[in-house]
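Entry type: protein chain
Record version: 2
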Amino acid sequence: MEITPELIKNLGKLSRLALTPEEEAKLEGELRSVVAFFEKLGDLDTEGLSEMARPVEITNRLRPDETRPSLSQQEALSVAIEQEDGQFKVPRVIE
């Protein structure tokens, strides 16, 4: 992939960043390094290597689900600016 100044300007526009010329030049160099690294990885001979999801096996540490007291509907709605039929009423955002 070719990293050009036009690509950097377009990326800045798409991400809504106001980049200075110095920042654009720095970003261009950094992106070139990243792309070069991935191209180098693509050149590696991986024939015969087993697939690996993670280099180190990990397990999720999840807490057990426990029921706890929570707010009643009346308590939750006590801070509502508007409510209707026992629910929060918010301005319509989709026409």
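Comment: Strands lie at 83-84, 87-88.
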